[in-house]
From TrEMBL:
Chain residues that bind substrate: 98-102, 152, 196, 223
GO BP: any one term: tRNA wobble guanine modification
Subcellular location: Cytoplasm
Substrates-to-products reaction catalysed: guanosine(34) in tRNA + queuine = queuosine(34) in tRNA + guanine
Domain (tRNA-guanine(15) transglycosylase-like) ranges: 20-380
Residue segments, region RNA binding: 254-260, 278-282
Protein name per UniProt: Queuine tRNA-ribosyltransferase catalytic subunit 1
Matches recorded under PANTHER family: QUEUINE TRNA-RIBOSYLTRANSFERASE CATALYTIC SUBUNIT 1
One GO CC term on file: cytosol
Xref: Gene3D superfamilies: Queuine tRNA-ribosyltransferase-like
List of catalytic residues: 98, 273
Record: residues binding Zn(2+): 311, 313, 316, 348
InterPro entries: TGT (IPR004803), TGT-like_sf (IPR036511), tRNA_ribo_trans-like (IPR002616)
Length: 406
């Protein structure tokens, strides 16, 4: 198979001597990004409540846009006229776009998948429409994203229909070939393949072999985070990373819980995205180094400590140190009444996850990832190993990290 062009360079900086964790730098058309990393999701070319400047100030250099939403509004003609999504949202850093397929299947009940593509009814006027691999590439070429995702045939991991899962895996490989064929700018936009195969490890292996042959600049593991058991999720990630080439970035789609990130990094994954940290902020939930706190709870009404004492985000940082000095009590007071509370928490939550991955990277470079992982779980569960989630303990053991040993 012909070698694919790549618009990125990938430098592997360090590997953990115990687990499969890696630290790397990926240089994309809009600058370098450090892996492992969390990518916040800016659905409509905006992160709910945050301006591009705020997102930039948190250290984000790669965010996600949804092709489905941008394709509907402002639409392809406007994207072409303005010169792509970077210009549309005044974001001079990197953008990753999904294919649009997952959004359709999950948002539109009437979506129907055929070999040609995803058929659905326009949410605007109900007219029949079709998203093909070619159309997805054309839209993502108009968006101008630094990383584009192939259109894949997504099916819930929890589906009992084995035959359908096999079909979806093979179709995803065929659709990747059509995407490669249709991609107009491989010299300036990177197309990532997506490994499918449900929870069947043999199918996943078969898919990895086929996808790796196509030599795309990066590789995603898809179809997870759909309510499957965490132990099964970990088995899939571990099975895939075992076979993946060292010198390409590995993106596990739809993952955003801090514990999942820390474990998945140990299993050899580099990139993650999820709407959860921003969505949950709107319900008053703060993601912190001591676990997720629901600041709507009455117990926070007179708690004048920062949202997270160990956080250096603009909200948690004290006034003396140039921050906003926001307290739990203040968020408690605002939440549900004022959108400002949601904005502040969104900022904190995004910063927390970006920073968690920055710290993980530092630990990998210092070859201290196992102790980083122990400290991370220790803080959340007050070092009570009996409270640690069994799936995490078991998954980490498979890569040489024993959470229960001091
Ligand atoms: Zn903070």
């Amino acid at each position: 198979m012909a070698q694919q062009k790549a618009a990125l360079s990938f430098d592997l900086i360090a590997k953990c001597s115990v687990s499969r964790a890696r630290a790397s730098t990926m240089t994309l058309p809009h600058g370098p990004v450090e892996l492992p990393m969390f990518m916040p999701v800016a659905t409509q070319a905006s992160l709910k409540g945050l301006t591009p400047e705020q997102l930039e100030s948190l250290g984000c250099r790669l965010c996600l846009n949804n092709t489905y939403h941008l394709g509907l509004k402002p639409g392809q003609a406007t994207l072409d006229a303005v010169g792509g999504a970077h210009r549309l949202q005044s974001w001079n850093h990197n953008i990753l776009t999904d294919s649009g397929g997952f959004q359709m299947v999950s948002l539109l009940k009437l979506a129907k998948i055929t070999e040609e593509g995803v058929r659905f009814l326009s949410p605007h006027d109900g007219s029949p429409m079709l998203l093909t691999p070619e159309h997805s590439m054309s839209l993502q070429n108009s968006i101008g994203s630094d990383i584009m995702m192939q259109l894949d045939d997504v099916i819930a991991t929890t589906s009992p229909d084995k035959e359908r899962i096999v079909e979806a895996m093979h179709r995803s490989v065929r659709w990747l070939d059509r995407c490669i064929e249709a991609h107009k700018y491989p010299e300036k936009q990177n197309l990532f393949c997506i490994i499918q195969g449900g929870l069947d490890l043999e199918l996943r292996r078969e898919c990895v072999k086929e996808m790796v042959k196509r030599d795309t600049p990066g590789i995603a593991i898809g179809g997870l985070s759909g309510g499957e058991e965490k132990a099964k999720y970990c088995a899939v990630v571990r099975t895939c990373t075992e076979m993946l080439p060292d010198m390409k970035p590995r993106y596990v789609m739809g993952v955003g819980y801090p514990e999942d990130l820390v474990v998945s990094v140990a299993l050899g994954a580099d990139m993650f995205d999820c709407v959860w940290p921003t969505r949950t902020a709107r319900f008053g939930n703060a993601v912190t180094s001591r676990g997720t706190l629901n600041l709507r709870h009455a117990s926070y009404a007179a708690d004048f400590s920062p949202v997270d004492e160990d956080c250096d985000c603009p909200c948690c940082r004290s006034k003396e140190n140039g921050g906003l000095g926001v307290t739990k009590a203040y968020i408690h007071h605002l939440t549900g009444k004022e959108t400002a509370g949601a904005h502040i928490l969104t900022m904190h939550n995004v910063y927390y996850l970006l920073d968690l991955m920055r710290n993980a990277r530092q630990a990998i470079i210092a070859d201290a990832y196992p102790s980083f992982v122990k400290e991370f779980f220790g803080k959340i569960y007050k070092y009570d190993t009996a409270e640690y989630p069994i799936w995490a303990v078991d998954a980490l053991k498979t890569v040489g990290i024993d959470l229960t040993e001091a």
